[in-house]
Amino acid sequence: MTTNSMMKTLLCPAILLAAFFQYSTLAAQADRFQQLETEMRAASGADRVEKLIQLSDAYLDAGQYDKAANWADEAGDFARKLRLQYQRAVALNREGKAMMLAGKKKAGNRFEQSLDILRSMDSPDKNLALNNLVALRTLAQRTGKAKDIVEIEDQINRISNNSALSAPQPPSSAPVTREELREEIGVLQKEIAKQQARNSGVAPNSADYEKQKQALEAALAEREAQSTR
């Protein structure tokens, strides 16, 4: 038997086994989707919203982001009609995740809407708020928006330190004292250090890393220029 023949003999069972497992996984997913859709149609009120969110989660896990976004959108719309604020915040979070993973624009709007709802609640879910903020930080890092990154980091730190969940402070005018400028420079320097630490395992020529670093350093240079005037 030739080497090629032996390789074909060994590979054929492996390929068939892989195909079988893939088919089994897809079949199990299809059964799960069908089960959840059946349960969703039989449910009403808040239970129906929960089933819609579960459907969105199932499609997210399966990597079917468009369907995940559609189910989340339906969940959010139904929750809005029933005035279920928390469930609507969850649905918006899931829709944002699906849109972000699908590379669609305006994913950030869904996370912002989810945050706005949570801020209006007496006892908001801080873990959900942090999840929204982390996603917004990721989007800001991708686009190199240094000022947005700093503001989001500030919100994350305040929530992590058990502060009340509140709206971000409106952007203030340029600082007028050198002390205020030094404080803002310090914040930007810390953010640059954090970005460098996060990307310590990334090659120096990484496009995303360089874009984020340049944006932060540009903001820092702008503040330092102001401090010398």
Protein topology:
Blueprint: H1 3-42, H2 45-61, H3 65-81, H4 85-101, H5 107-119, H6 126-143, H7 146-160, H8 178-198, H9 207-227
Helix pairs in contact: 1-2, 2-3, 2-4, 3-4, 4-5, 4-6, 5-6, 6-7, 8-9
Please, could you describe this protein's structure?
With 229 residues, the chain is mainly alpha-helical. Among the domains are: 28-128, Alpha Horseshoe (Serine Threonine Protein Phosphatase 5, Tetratricopeptide repeat); 172-229. It has helices at 3-42, 45-61, 65-81, 85-101, 107-119, 126-143, 146-160, 178-198, 207-227. It starts with a helix and ends with a helix.
Class by SSE composition: mainly alpha
Name the poorly predicted regions.
Answer: 171-176
- What's the CATH H-level homologous superfamily of the domain at 28-128? Tetratricopeptide repeat domain
Helix content: over 70%
Count of alpha and pi helical runs: 9
| Shape-level CATH architecture of the domain at 28-128 | Alpha Horseshoe
Can you describe this structure in just a few lines?
The protein is mainly α and 229 residues long.
